[in-house]
Specification:
By secondary structure, the chain is of the alpha+beta class. It has 14 helices and six strands. The chain has a six-stranded antiparallel β-sheet with strand order 1-2-3-4-5-6.
Length: 366
């Protein structure tokens, strides 16, 4: 018994949609790179215009640009494919044969799902790592610096080193001073072994030692807590200098999901807030689903373009994409500072547009 599945029509629309999506995606990635290249051309020329390094710099940015631009390419591919079939009356012929519009565009959703899976994989494991490599290529190979990023000051710095977690409300490598210092030392099982809190600390560059002032030390052994207070004490177990703490620390954006999970677990066990880390982690999963949501928007608008015109449908949908991006960044910021739950911060934009898009989908004419 054969299934009521018009395979030829699915292949026909699917091939058209896929071809357009790939052409548009390659085009917008190339346009992004060309624009960015001419913005940085003075910098490239002033540092010797190293062709190989420049090529690697943009190669490492391709996954990030792709994740960002896949929704746009799927949106435009939906418009152009359905618009082309409408212009040649092929959609009218499909409807006349008894196939609904919703059934006809199934292949678009299948291909969009594959793009969503690709986008999720890139966003989870590739984008952050490759953007870090791009930063290194720009700083070391193109600009000729010794290290990718050299900072001399930072606020709210968290540093994880093996079984220790450090927090500095502020730290300066120029003055060799840090304020509001917290050091948490963990056992292998994840329990807290020691916690040090200091009002401020200074670093002796000659001896390579940290001197903590007004420091409280708590050591945990089972149910026993040993407490000590020092007005001034040398902590030789802190071996990193201010430059070490400030050097080449990865941004959350540059971590993959495994690194984010380990950071969340370590900081959580140490008693630190992890709002920003959780929001970034959940956003890695939520953002790729924009690809499917944008198709839910695009199909009804593309199907109705014969009444309102292509410019109207295209303009409305592009506007919705930018609104989605804006809402995503706004809620991500709110989640990162703990104003709303990180899960909600990551998923509210998707849910908001899905609530709008589903009624549009069900109003599609037969």
């Amino acid at each position: 018994m054969s299934l009521p599945f018009p395979k030829k029509l699915d292949r026909y629309l699917g091939n058209l949609f896929l071809r357009l999506a790939l052409i548009i995606l390659i085009g917008v990635i190339a346009l992004f790179i060309i624009v960015n290249f001419f913005e940085n051309i003075d910098k490239f020329i002033s540092h010797g215009f190293k062709v190989g390094a420049i090529a690697r710099y943009y190669m490492y940015q391709v996954p990030y640009i792709a994740v960002l631009m896949i929704p746009v390419s799927l949106l435009l591919a939906t418009f152009f494919s359905i618009g082309e079939l409408s212009a040649t009356f092929e959609i009218m012929a499909v409807k006349a044969s008894g196939i609904s519009m919703k059934r006809f565009v199934v292949s678009i959703f299948i291909i969009s799902s594959l793009f969503t899976a690709l986008s999720m994989y890139l966003n989870m494991y590739i984008v952050g790592t490759w953007m870090k490599r791009a930063e290194t290529v720009m700083a070391v190979e193109i600009e000729g610096k010794r290290m990718p990023r050299s900072r001399t000051f930072a606020n709210d710095l968290t540093f994880i080193s093996e079984n220790r977690v450090y927090y500095f409300r502020s730290i300066s490598a120029l003055s060799n001073r840090a304020d509001a210092i917290v050091m948490v030392e963990l056992e292998k099982e994840g329990r807290i072994r020691k916690r040090v809190d200091a009002v401020y600390g200074t670093y002796d560059t000659l001896k390579g030692e940290w001197i903590l002032h007004r420091a409280s030390v708590r050591e945990f052994a089972g149910d026993t807590v040993r407490y000590a207070y020092f007005d001034r004490r040398v902590f030789q177990e802190i071996t990193q200098s201010p430059f070490d703490f400030l050097r080449d620390e990865k941004d959350l954006f540059q971590m993959n999901v495994d690194e984010l999970r380990r950071r969340i677990e370590t900081l959580g066990r140490s008693g630190f807030e992890v709002y920003a880390e959780l929001t970034e982690l959940y956003s890695r999963y939520s953002f790729p689903f924009m690809n499917l949501i944008i198709v839910i928007f695009a199909v009804p608008i593309a199907a109705a373009m014969k009444k309102r015109g292509k410019a109207w449908g295209f303009g409305i949908s592009v506007m919705l994409v930018f609104i989605y991006w804006g809402l995503s960044e706004a809620f991500k910021t709110l989640g990162s500072v703990g104003k709303i739950d990180p899960v909600l911060a990551a998923w509210i934009p998707n849910l908001f547009f899905l609530v709008i898009g589903i009624p549009m989908w069900f109003r599609i004419e037969y």
